[in-house]
Amino acid sequence: MRKTPFVTKEQLEKIVEIYPTPFHLYDEKGIRENAKALKDAFSWNKGFKEYFAVKATPNPFLINILREYDCGCDCSSLTELMMADAIGANGADIMFSSNETPAEEYVLADQLGAIINLDDITHIDFLEETIGHIPEVISCRYNPGGLFKISNDIMDNPGDAKYGMTTEQLFEAYKILKAKGAKEFGIHAFLASNTVTNEYYPMLAKVLFEVAVKLHEETGAHIKFINLSGGIGIPYKPDQQPNDIKVIGEGVRKVYEEVLVPAGMGDVEIYTELGRFMLAPYGCLVTKAVHEKHTHKEYIGVDACAARARDADGAAGTLAAAHAQNDGIGLDGKIAVLLAGALDDLVGGDLKYHGVDQNIGTGALDHIGKSAGVLGAGQLFLEVVQAETVMYTLVEDTADLAVALDDEDFLRAVLASGV
Predict the structure, then answer these.
(1) Cβ distance 354 to 342 under 8 Å?
(2) DSSP state of 149
(3) CB 3.0-4.6 Å disulfide test: which of 55, 142, 291, 404 passes with 301?
(4) Which residues contact 264 (CB under 8 A, 6 or more apart)?
């Protein structure tokens, strides 16, 4: 896939004259078009709703843009519930999906009227003891175990995941919850992460739809919604193509009509909890290069660090959330951009793109001497830009991107090991 930056060299140079690096930059037009495309793709389902994964980019300004397209908030912690409350989200606009949940989080979720998605069957009694009742609308997280395959390719291993209930536990949970007063039920599952295939959602939908039919038949429970959660990813490598949300939505519709409609369940609402698909291609961290380091690997030291990124004006949390699962940035040190093993993928225009091999190991370049301050170690850079003596690095929300501005000869020298 060949990508085109949403910011030009000229625009970037003007911006940095006003706003010192590091800072976050977002493409509002792209965010809005993508949100509309998702809504249109599932418009065939009257109750469709996207619950944006707040953890992906906990920025209230961006979330409020998504709310203009009827997006709710997918929260998994007390802080995320507090943020949802602060921007005016409440009731069915909040999906609370958590695990190992403290009592105070269930209390706040209940006070806000959020839909609570239980991760474990033991949480039923805990929830009832904590808030004094079982909500009339409630959801359970399902984990079928085993391997999740698409066209003989293993997408992920749900059996190794800590989340969700087994099939037997799910059926028992519904019976218990129904006996305790629950009237409307939801099913939630997250079986693979960052998939770059239009097949994932339809295949997941088929699994959940078939389970929903059996649950309804065996327990008499009214299935109000089925939550496909997240998992739709973005292309990080040059040979990957972006997901087509229109094709994905149509695939889910076909399975819906094949499985749910014949079972008399044509009123089931479809929910999603997308994160990186919603914002990752439309946000970046802009940071300035301050040093070069040529040792066993090639590095560019920049002026950003994780702590600073969290405090960036109007964009708190994006970088921290994007790297919560990758120890790619030192909490105390400067970020070091690791440039070894490049795969050239130039795009026309004044911003040049280069991919970096994922298997580049780890290393560091920070001011406190810890091996923790490498941006993108073991991950993938899609863009690197050199502007005369100053490099501006744009790091995409979850995609660790570096964007540069001119001097291709210098860049090729830095990336000599791969081009």
Answers:
(1) yes
(2) E
(3) 291
(4) none
Question: Which helix (H) or strand (E) element contains residue 107?
Answer: helix 103-111
The pTM of the whole model exceeds 0.85: no
Residue 210, phi then psi, degrees to nearest 5 = -65, -40
Residue 35 DSSP SS3:
helix
What phi, psi does 49 have (nearest 5°)?
A: -150, 130
C-beta separation of 257 from 208 below 8 A: no
Q: Are strands 342-344 and 354-356 parallel, antiparallel or unpaired?
A: antiparallel
Q: 207: closest CA among 227, 234, 221?
A: 227
Asked if residues 237 and 380 have their Cβ atoms less than 8 Å apart, the reply is yes
Tokens 């299935």 belong to 223
Q: Which residues of 329-357 are buried (b: 16+ CB within 10 A; e: fewer)?
A: bbeebbbbbbbbbbbebeeeeebbbbbbb
Kind plus residue range of the DSSP H or E element containing 374: strand 374-375
pLDDT tens readout for residues 126-174:
999 999 999 999 999 999 875 655 654 544 555 565 678 999 999 999 9
* Torsion angle (degrees, nearest 10) of CA 417, 242, 279, 351: 40
According to DSSP, the residues that pair with 138 across neighbouring strands are 116, 185
Gap between the terminal Cα atoms of the chain: 18
Can you read off the two tokens belonging to residue 317? 């949390």
